[in-house]
Amino acid sequence: MSLLQQDSPELDDAARGEDLTKGSSHVLRNSGLAAAVVIVATALYVLMGQKPPAATGEIEHVWVHSQHTEGKSVDANGAPMARESVDQMFVFTKVKLHNQSEHPLVLHNVLTNATLPDGIHSSYAAIPADYERLFAAYPALASIHGKPLAVDSTIHPGETVEGNVVSAFRLTKAEWDARKDLSFTFSLLYQPNLVLTPHTEVIYRQ
Predict the structure, then answer these.
(1) Which of 23, 48, 86, 159 has the highest count of CB atoms within 10 angstroms of its CB?
(2) Rounded to an integer, what distance in angstroms lies between the CA atom of residue 197 and that of residue 23?
């Protein structure tokens, strides 16, 4: 028997080890492919299961007006009293909302949110009657007067509505200028809130 024909335990063990290594690499490769397929399938399921929001919108314009008011220095009987001063920021917003769902949407309320150094300050939008009274009290703001957006209004499928809202904050102009962010929350009955951020410059009106 020649040396080439001799059975060698060491050679057999090495060969078996090589076969085991090859088998392991196949298993790892197949496991990786299976995991990738599962990830892709899961992603497709999530994407296909997600519905677009019922409403979309856009903040078209934002105007602000600072108002400093001094209270009376005497009461109804003519007696002197401490004069109270009030600083307010009125935030006027023109907004466009679109119903892209197959069902009517009801606007429940509108919040203006200003992020200040001490946290988020929110103010509800005034009802249309108060909106009109504000312009009657400050006729100098007539140039930004528009059709008020009514809370509890219904937006029909495919319909787009436009209107103005106003919110008031008990802040000085300096406090308002220190804000870090500004957003608007539109609450719709039985739907997730729609939050819009203005992408236009905030304009000051005197």
Answers:
(1) 159
(2) 57
Token pair of 179 as six digits: 């804000």
Cβ(72)–Cβ(83) under 8 Å?
yes
Asked whether 64 and 93 are in contact (CB, 8 A), the reply is: no
The per-residue pLDDT for range 87-101, each reduced to its tens digit, is 999 999 999 999 999
Phi and psi for 139 in degrees, rounded to 5?
A: -60, -20
Q: Number of helices (H) and strands (E) in the chain: give both, helices first.
A: 3, 9
**Which residues fall within 8 angstroms of residue 81, CB to CB, at 6 or more apart?**
72, 73, 74, 75
The residue assigned the tokens 């060698």 is 8
d(CA 8, CA 1): 13
The DSSP H or E segment spanning 74 is none
CA distances from 47 to 34, 50, 191 (A): 20, 5, 20
Give residue 144's identity as a one-letter amino acid code.
Answer: I
* pLDDT 10s digits, 105-132: 999 999 999 999 999 999 999 999 999 9
CA-CA distance, 141 to 143, in Å (whole number)?
Answer: 6
Supply the pTM of this predicted model.
0.71
pLDDT band at 39 (very low <50, low <70, confident <90, very high): low
DSSP 72: P
